[in-house]
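Title: Comparing notes on inverse folding

I've been comparing how different people in this forum approach sequence design from structure. To keep things fair, I'm posting one structure and asking everyone to reply with a full sequence. Here's the target:
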């Protein structure tokens, strides 16, 4: 479980309030002097008040507790002998305040102790000794240095945490941008695919002109890529529409050479595997002359002068077939 600074300060204030209260009760039980009991209960009251104020959200309560305890200790501490209690406010200041407060509390306590000594008119207490005073100042300096190191470590930790948070936010922002770019790329690829499919359909349009008859007018040059697309498109349409005849009109194809003739032958073979006949129409006189000169024979293809002629031929054949079937039944 992670404990933050506020929880730690609250625990220290509450713990010290409970400890000093119990200590005061023990002082009463063991019959300690009143000069010891009263300051103990005053310190307990200071810690209890500071704990309540801090719980209510007043952050300065920790400084109030430190100053109050330091004042009580400096006033109530005996001047005839050194006591470790002198360092209790300093240790507490190191734990819950800052470097300036540690140094200020230490110097203020020394000033109060020396002031009490001067007020007594003797100036011969243990704290008036140069050696004791110098030793005390060295220890105050050590406490202040310790708090300074803690402050620097905290500042560095906060700076690192802020940098880490900023880096995390930047990474999340970049991840969001990358994710958005990926979505846009996917959408763009989908649109491109749709355009490709649309172009493919436009490159090989097929119109149903009679029951079981498709007219596929081809326009523009035909290379190996387009020939493959034509074959795939026609196979798909023939299978979906259960076509029995496909009329390939090549009136819009400017040149029919060996490569185009072979591509058309392959398309016809593929369609025949689905049980579909293919009739080639639209061959101009110029194209026919060119095919003759280069020695290309379209022996595997049925040829008609126009789509109308091919359709009429098909309808006639179907009519004859229907009559023969009726005669056979009779």
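Reply #1:
Here's my take.
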């Amino acid at each position: 479980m992670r404990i933050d600074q506020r929880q730690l300060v609250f625990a220290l204030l509450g713990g010290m309030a409970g400890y000093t209260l119990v200590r005061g009760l023990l002082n009463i039980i063991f019959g300690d002097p009143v000069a010891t009991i009263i300051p103990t209960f005053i310190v307990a009251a200071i810690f209890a008040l500071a704990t309540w104020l801090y719980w209510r959200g007043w952050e300065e309560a920790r400084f109030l507790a430190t100053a109050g305890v330091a004042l009580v200790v400096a006033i109530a501490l005996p001047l005839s002998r050194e006591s470790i209690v002198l360092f209790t406010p300093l240790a507490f200041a190191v734990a819950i305040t800052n470097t300036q407060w540690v140094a200020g509390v230490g110097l203020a306590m020394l000033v109060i102790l020396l002031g009490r000594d001067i007020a007594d008119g003797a100036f011969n207490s243990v704290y008036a000794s140069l050696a004791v005073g110098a030793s005390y100042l060295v220890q105050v300096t050590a406490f202040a240095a310790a708090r300074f190191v803690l402050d620097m470590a905290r500042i560095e930790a906060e700076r690192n945490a802020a940098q880490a948070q900023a880096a995390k936010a930047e990474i999340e922002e970049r991840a969001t941008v990358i994710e958005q770019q990926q979505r846009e790329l996917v959408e763009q690829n989908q649109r491109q695919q749709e355009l490709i499919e649309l172009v493919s359909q436009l490159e090989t349009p097929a119109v149903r002109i009679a029951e079981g008859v498709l007219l596929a007018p081809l326009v523009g040059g035909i290379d190996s890529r387009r020939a493959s697309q034509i074959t795939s498109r026609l196979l798909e349409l023939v299978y979906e529409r259960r076509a029995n005849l496909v009329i390939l009109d090549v009136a819009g194809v400017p040149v029919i050479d060996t490569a185009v003739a072979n591509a058309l032958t392959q398309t016809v073979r593929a369609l025949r595997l689905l049980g579909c006949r293919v009739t080639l129409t639209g061959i101009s006189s110029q194209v026919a002359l060119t095919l003759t000169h280069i020695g290309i024979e379209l022996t595997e293809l049925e040829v008609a002068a126009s789509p109308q002629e091919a359709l009429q031929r098909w309808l006639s054949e179907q009519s004859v077939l229907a009559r023969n079937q009726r005669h056979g039944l009779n």
